[in-house]
Amino acid sequence: MASYYPEPTNIWESIEYSSLGTSIAESLWAFPTLETIHVIALVTVFGTILVMDLRLLGLAGNKWTVLQMSKDTLPWTWAGFVLAAITGTLLFTSKASTYMVNPYFLWKMGLLALAGLNMAYFHFVTYKTVTEWDSSPVMPGGAKFAATASLVLWLGVVFCGRAIGFTLGIYY
């Protein structure tokens, strides 16, 4: 039996009522499988960022240089982020209209954007001088600020992500 979806009235409904969106929404396994992969990818991102941030704060991993830790964690961070972005986009297509009115989703996207800006500033400004403080027991203020901001922002992303799951049926 074919599903009936009304004529889309905005871009979010067009995405949601697309063949991809309806396939994910109507499948018994697609959404939970994508959600599981999304969570695993996000845990990978958060875990690798946490390790690096704790190193920048001087709270853990001090026997490794910042450059070595970055070299070891960054590929995992990016792989996890790409996988989380792909699965998150696919999840979004199945309930685009609902997500776009859910304040936790909007906050999550805003916090992700801020985390990206924080990372970009760190890598293009603070990290340029990493060879000067790479193995120092005391990190520069800019590195500590970036690490603290990163932890706060990513904890907010995780919190909002969980809250989305608990509030999907509330906001329409």
General description of the model:
By secondary structure, the chain is mostly helical. It has one domain (about 25-165). It contains eight helices and no strands. Helix 2 crosses helix 4 (about 65-95), helix 3 (about 30-55) packs antiparallel against helix 8 and helix 6 (about 105-125) runs antiparallel to helix 8 (about 140-165). Keywords: Membrane, Transmembrane, Transmembrane helix. This is DUF6644 domain-containing protein. Pfam families: DUF6644 (PF20349).
Topology:
Elements: H1 11-16, H2 19-26, H3 30-56, H4 66-94, H5 96-99, H6 103-124, H7 130-133, H8 141-167
Order of helices and strands: HHHHHHHH
Mean pLDDT: 89
Classify the helix fraction into a percent range: over 70%
* Rg on CA atoms, Å: 19 Å
Largest sheet: none
Oligomer: single chain
Q: What class, by secondary structure content? A: mainly alpha
| Number of domain units | 1
- Total count of helical runs of at least 4 residues: 8
End-to-end C-alpha gap: 26 Å
Q: Outline the low-pLDDT stretches.
A: none
Give the total of beta strands. Answer: 0
Strand content: under 5%
Shape: elongated
Protein name: DUF6644 domain-containing protein
Domain DUF6644: 35-166
Pfam families: DUF6644 (PF20349)
Transmembrane segments: 37-56, 76-93, 105-125, 145-171
Summarize the entry for a quick read.
The chain has 172 residues and is mainly alpha-helical. It has helices spanning 11-16, 19-26, 30-56, 66-94, 96-99, 103-124, 130-133, 141-167. It is elongated, with a radius of gyration of 19 Å.
